[in-house]
Design brief:
Pfam families: BTG (PF07742). The protein is an alpha+beta fold and 154 residues long. The chain contains six helices and five strands. It has helices at residues 2-17, 22-40, 53-56, 66-74, 79-85, 132-137; strands at residues 58-61, 89-95, 98-103, 110-114, 124-125. A five-stranded antiparallel beta sheet has the order 1-2-3-4-5.
């Protein structure tokens, strides 16, 4: 569910930007899901969901995330075209029981999917509500959530 939610989100960003056909978008989503499944295979820890979070983080920050780049290459989209279609700053965290994202370095962290119970009994997908990006555009605040922050300096 988490991988499907994340892939659907990136696909929706591409769809919203325009210029990519529906068949290409379907193929992109499937390719991205497969790339993520393979990449996360030995880095998924439901008993300790934050373990491996950095490894599972999808990031566009003036460099294209390799998983997105790989899926885009399968449908003939270059990295240059992806930079035109997707936000230049995007962070997508794909963790057991939660998928969240941030657009921009100073953007709000928005939750796409969360499941409070291991096993997903009370899982809910948050696609039906207004996205944080849309809320930001119309001046609403993003969902409140407590995050532990860690600062790393070199």
């Amino acid at each position: 569910t988490e991988i499907s939610t994340a892939a659907a989100f990136v696909t929706r960003l591409l769809r919203a930007a325009g210029g990519v056909g529906e068949e290409q978008l379907r193929c992109f989503r499937e390719c991205l899901q497969e790339a993520m499944r393979e990449h996360y295979k030995h880095h998924w820890f439901p008993l300790v969901p934050s373990k491996g979070s950095g490894y599972r983080c999808i990031r566009i920050n003036h460099k294209m995330d390799p998983l997105i780049g790989k899926a885009a290459g399968m449908i003939g989209l270059s990295h240059e075209r992806l930079f035109q279609l997707l936000p230049s700053e995007l962070t997508l965290w794909v963790d057991p029981f939660e998928v969240s994202y941030r657009i921009g370095e100073d953007g709000s962290i928005c939750v796409l999917y969360e499941s409070p119970e291991p096993g997903g009994k009370a899982a809910k997908q948050l696609e039906s509500r207004t996205s944080c990006k849309e809320e930001w555009r119309i001046g609403r605040s993003s969902p409140s959530k407590s995050y532990n922050m860690m600062t790393v300096s070199s």
